[in-house]
């Protein structure tokens, strides 16, 4: 199985990446999976290019494909201006809208103060619910002071256990929502254009069937 | 194989001078560009259709009718005609009329249009885009192919005993291309009817174009119109040339950097490596264009985007001289040498009339 970890930390070393690594270790202690980390900082320019051109440069395409193909996802962002960072949101704006359907997702956020702890609930959770992900009950917020206290450990363990239990191979093979995809096409440049269609190619609805469906109305 | 140009019809400031042409200037420039296309020996001129500023071509058959009168050989086409928001009855009438005016030098490319507000402005809903393209085109086909049509559908008032006039020239409707960048449904539609499929090609990586064209070719064969290699494929391209490739890069860079579609994003170098954009010498353009065949197979129509992003008319006309004199003659020869037997020629009205006259005869003999 594949566990993909998206980290939107900007500094190096970054506490966001540190939290992401702790969540990854807690998950991998309970399930056998191959981890892959996507550092959004390294993709910042390519993410901006995708917005402007409508298609992803190669490294970004590979990252989007990795997220789409993952059996489980850990997504961690720093808190900027009371929400996820713009870079974090931009990356998930570019994810195909069906790519996360039914995928177990563990959310994490970091901040300078505990006053933002509910950002995982009021900002991150609705975003991933919109993307039809299976958002796990425990999301982990780490303020600066948490790195010196007891509770963070327990929350990380609980969250990692939840993700490990939810991960199952082929969980992501839910049928794509073809009708909805067609209905909103063509999409705007900012409207979630992904790099590739599934590896097995396009889903074809035979033309006569489409024609007949219209005539039946 | 046919070579030509397609235009978006954008009114864009020249980034090197800040000067914005008036709508009148831009429209006159488009007409001059079309006539130049014929003068330098190109085969096709296609105009976009838009219903919002900063674009001028809202009324393509008006423009193409004028060009028809000023040219002898040029095929007049569109890139694209909005099959979603236009009334298919009016498309049937307008393009049949243009066929007569232009003595058959007409074909048309159907597209959905990707400007959200245009749909409600014309009383439609963008979420119905694919269904509109399917129903409207099915009606359009009948209006051209049958003299009297009684029809009922989802998106338009029913028709009782309606005859679209004038009837298509020589009883053969304009050839239809279906243009789509990313919708497999449209490749499927083109394949179903045995129509042409045009991929814009210029804004996306080649692998994407390859995937869409392959799908169309497979489905074309599936519907029994011929082998996948015999499907009718058109491609876009985008070039800027000077004798010396460094001069081309230097001159085009400000237009690239500020272009409405992709400007302020990737560098010129990144974009030329990611997409078919070629900025350099005529020889570089020849080599790049020939390489398209490596991933789409032998194809029938190559259109270049030459007049966008605020390039002044004088520059565009110089580009067309280079295209017509140095690039296209070589491409014609090279593509012809590479083409195996059995690949169909690009569609023309006389050839399609001849084929239509042949088909009923065969049936009587059988």
Key terms for this structure?
heterodimer; A: alpha/beta; 7-stranded mixed β-sheet; 7 strands; 41% helix; 17% strand; globular; B: 366 residues; alpha/beta; TIM Barrel; 10-stranded parallel β-sheet; 12 helices; 12 strands; LLM_FMN-dep_put (chain B); monooxygenase (chain B); oxidoreductase (chain B); FMN-dependent luciferase-like monooxygenase (chain B)
Please explain how this structure is put together.
Chain B: Keywords: Monooxygenase, Oxidoreductase. Chain B: Pfam families: Bac_luciferase. Chain B: Residues 341-366 are annotated as: Disordered. Chain B: Residues 1-294 form the Luciferase-like domain. Chain B: This is FMN-dependent luciferase-like monooxygenase. The complex is a heterodimer of chains A (217) and B (366). Chain A has a single domain (2-216), classed as Rossmann fold (3-Layer(aba) Sandwich), CATH 3.40.50. In chain A, strands 1, 2, 3, 4, 5, 6 and 7 form a seven-stranded mixed sheet that branches. In chain A, helix 1 (15-28) packs across helix 6. In chain A, a hairpin with a 2-residue loop joins strand 3 (72-80) and strand 4 (83-84). Helices cover 41% and strands 17% of the residues of chain A. Chain A is α/β, with parallel strands linked by helices. Chain B has one domain (2-365): Luciferase-like domain (TIM Barrel, Alpha-Beta Barrel), CATH 3.20.20. Chain B is built from twelve helices and twelve strands. Chain B has helices at residues 23-39, 60-70, 88-101, 118-121, 129-145, 184-193, 206-222, 245-257, 268-274, 282-296, 313-338, 349-365; strands spanning 2-7, 44-47, 75-78, 81-82, 107-111, 149-151, 159-162, 175-179, 196-199, 233-241, 278-280, 301-305. In chain B, strands 1, 2, 3, 4, 5, 8, 9, 10, 11 and 12 form a ten-stranded parallel sheet that branches. Chain B has a two-stranded antiparallel ribbon with strand order 6-7. In chain B, helix 7 links the parallel strand 9 (196-199) and strand 10. In chain B, helix 1 packs parallel to helix 11 (313-338), helix 6 packs parallel to helix 7 and helix 10 crosses helix 11 (313-338). The longest helix of chain B is centred in the last third of the chain and has 26 residues, at 313-338. Chain A binds chain B through residues 48-49, 51-55, 57, 182-186, 188, 193, 197, 201-208, 210-211, 214-215, 217, and chain B through 112, 114, 116, 126-131, 134-135, 138, 153-154, 181-185, 188-189, 191-192, 203-205, 208, 211, 215, 219, 261-266, 270-271, 274-275.
